[in-house]
Design a protein that fits this description.
Layout lengths: L1 E6 L19 H17 L5 E4 L3 H14 L4 E4 L9 H9 L6 E6 L3 H10 L13 E5 L9 E6 L9 H5 L6
Parallel strand pairs: 1-4, 2-3, 2-4
Antiparallel strand pairs: 1-5, 5-6
Helix pairs in contact: 1-2
Length: 173
């Protein structure tokens, strides 16, 4: 199973009148989501299922990327992708989606970075995804062993195909 793990794109800041869960994408965020959706198709196989956090900015990112990546993509809200969600439950849920063969997850930091480190069994490296960035992993759902790193792409950057170049000694905004 190919798993694309993407952080939501740039969103407006929250305020007293705009609660965190209702923050929506900026115009730059929308353009980033479109570009990353196209890039996923260029570098990998099209996702057939998109699981997204129910927060507005994640849903918007997921819908834009799904349209760009594959017209047959199904977008589904997933409670395990809310900020602070349980990583082990999310991974268990992923194993129930193996028939999709290619799944896109859209959510938030620091949960997604923790998911990547857990799936790669790389607890000695702190992974953090930039807004709108995507990591591609391959997971053998039959053996349930650790995943293999395929690539990482951040908005405006070239694709990186080695884990160390993607995440070691990187500062994320």
């Amino acid at each position: 199973m190919i798993i694309y793990i993407m952080r939501h794109a740039e969103a407006v800041e929250g305020s007293d009148t705009l609660h965190d869960e209702w923050r929506y994408l900026t115009e730059k965020g929308r353009k980033t989501a479109e570009c990353i959706g196209t890039t996923i198709v260029e570098y990998g196989r099209k996702p057939r299922l998109t699981l997204t956090s129910p927060l507005t900015r994640a849903v918007q990112t997921a819908e834009i990327v799904a349209v760009q990546a594959c017209r047959k993509n199904k977008v589904v809200s997933c409670e395990h992708l809310v900020p602070g969600g349980d990583i082990s439950k999310l991974i268990s849920h992923l194993h129930t989606c193996k028939d999709a063969k290619r799944v896109l997850l859209v959510g938030h930091e620091p949960q997604l970075g923790e998911l990547v480190t857990t799936m790669l069994d790389s607890t000695d490296v702190e992974v953090s995804l930039k807004k709108g960035a995507c990591v591609a992993l391959e997971l053998n759902t039959d053996t349930q062993e650790k995943a293999d790193f395929l690539w990482y792409i951040a908005p405006g950057k070239k694709r990186v195909t080695t884990f160390k170049k993607a995440f070691i000694n990187k500062k994320v905004v």
